[in-house]
Amino acid sequence: MKRRDFIRKAGATLATGAAAVGVPGMAQAKAEFNWKMVTAWPKNFPGLGTGANLLAKTITEMSGGRIKVKVYGARELVPAFEVYDTVSSGTAEMGHSGAYYWKGKSEAAQFFSAVPFGLTAQEMNAWLYYGGGLALWRELYQPFGIIPVPAGNSGVQMAGWFNKQINTVDDLKGLKMRIPGLGGEVLRRAGGITVNMPGGELFTSLQSGALDATEWVGPYNDLAFGFYKVAKYYYYPGWHEPGSTMEALINEKAFNALPKDLQQIVLTACKAANMDMLSEYSARNNQALETLVNKHKVNVLPLPDEVLKTLKQLSEQVVKALADKDPKSRKIYASISGFREQVMKWDAISEQAFMRARSL
Amino acid sequence: MKRRDFIRKAGATLATGAAAVGVPGMAQAKAEFNWKMVTAWPKNFPGLGTGANLLAKTITEMSGGRIKVKVYGARELVPAFEVYDTVSSGTAEMGHSGAYYWKGKSEAAQFFSAVPFGLTAQEMNAWLYYGGGLALWRELYQPFGIIPVPAGNSGVQMAGWFNKQINTVDDLKGLKMRIPGLGGEVLRRAGGITVNMPGGELFTSLQSGALDATEWVGPYNDLAFGFYKVAKYYYYPGWHEPGSTMEALINEKAFNALPKDLQQIVLTACKAANMDMLSEYSARNNQALETLVNKHKVNVLPLPDEVLKTLKQLSEQVVKALADKDPKSRKIYASISGFREQVMKWDAISEQAFMRARSL
Lengths: 360, 360
Hints:
2 copies of one chain form a homodimer.
Chain A: H1 3-13, E1 33-39, H2 48-62, E2 67-72, H3 83-89, E3 94-98, H4 121-130, H5 133-141, E4 146-153, E5 160-162, E6 176-178, H6 181-189, E7 193-194, H7 199-208, E8 213-214, H8 219-225, E9 233-236, E10 245-251, H9 252-256, H10 260-295, E11 299-302, H11 305-323, H12 327-349, H13 351-358
């Protein structure tokens, strides 16, 4: 799911009007810092928007109201695609979004959200916190006066909703699919036709046949959207977004103006938000999947191995091409791909081997 | 790895003497609350002990020194197995340990650390934060005046170090293995002989043949221990501990005496510590695995499917027997096993399917 979709969807379906984060019993506390948090999500969008709300609330509560953080949904203060500039200029002290939205600023930003056939949520966090990833990310945003902090994760997404079955690579040829970013580039290389379209139009486009397929997020968000009413097949796994990291953006000057305890509060709240959102998605996706399968009789299907193999090869080309764009991208690619190679070996004998053993 | 091992190891190999958590520039801050954190780990034990240190440091930093948390390794203030009582009585305001150590208090405590063939770290967190698990855990510890909070995870552990190959279930018969807790009960049902032995004696016992096998944690901790020098085979996956949760224990009265902002600081620091420890283990396990395989030429082997299937059946019996011990256990079992059933279906098409696709 990408920026543009949220913009329309926000306007179309959700009430506007920013509300201060309510903290009971803190009405009297004198705020030393009044912060705005602009987000790339519609206000209260389940998982992402509610995750941003929780982050703001946690900061305000931990600081005893010394920092008041007011959350703005997309288009409440600025459109989603202006979140980065708004934080960079200091008009808002904070933002909440996904790094792949900022490839116009730095191509390499895409490495910090989701890479096709890249890292899962747990691996991404290991790389960011303990594998050198976060330092590289800070280096990348530093020229813009922004400190990036991991602050959420959707976990593995779904490959999407399809109106035709995908049995061979040939079935991707001419497929009209809404799939943005690096995943879209991979589909184009496989012969598909990617269509850019706001989220609000996806439903009717699938219904009319203007679209053959669309990816969105996962069962929790997809169920709410009602895609099961207009698409026949729900494919897995989400090869294009295996663990999408959400970011908090912090204006560097605003951060430096905070006393040390409040700095630590902001950073720790982000780390807790990162844990929280992933847990929420894991729990709610499994409930929603059950509803989709048992109540709505959705056809949940795996992409065939042959198709996955091809998509994987093309993904490697696309990611390599991204790495070759500039020296920063090359450096980040070297770090993340080295980490990926190592962690895949560990996962093969831990997470992966355990989950296999459990289902024997 | 269990309590007793830490006790000896702490005494044998690590310097004692508790040190206050150092917070630069905070020497002058007046502490309103001086808290002790007693832990079940040797001081500074990598991953677990350092995780407890980080938790204490984060609380102290976020509070601007208003809460000073002083960390005690096992046997510095009290032995590891007295952590629970020490927090319950209020002698220490806080503890850091694993819930399986407290089955003497409530059998059901074991559900909140690690269950053979149970939940992975990510699933465990989803259950605790968003699946009703944490509420049940609080209910269980409430009579002891303790608030439990998830505060770390080791991820999937390894099955252990073996001096003989395991090719069939018969190879488990008569196997002298150090494996405590529910996993040990499973091995006994499979015909093995479980041996209780402090961590400090494992190395020589494997060398002398007094032990045929031992489990410990995973590559990061196991490499440091040097098991590769005395055991031939390193088996996976850690069916007995697929995502061991570490707990912070908080004395209820001490918690209630805190103002709301400091309460929120303590809880959020635990959530961040939970994210942090898992990330550290993921990153360091993969590095350590590489060293074990490439430098020390360790034989890393999978337990055969037939053996895993048997262990799984026996695990179900053992966990069911635990559930039947009392009404609280039954209630918790119903919740965790219902969640497990659902989340396994979701993981099959997300984490598991993605990792499989990536390795095609």
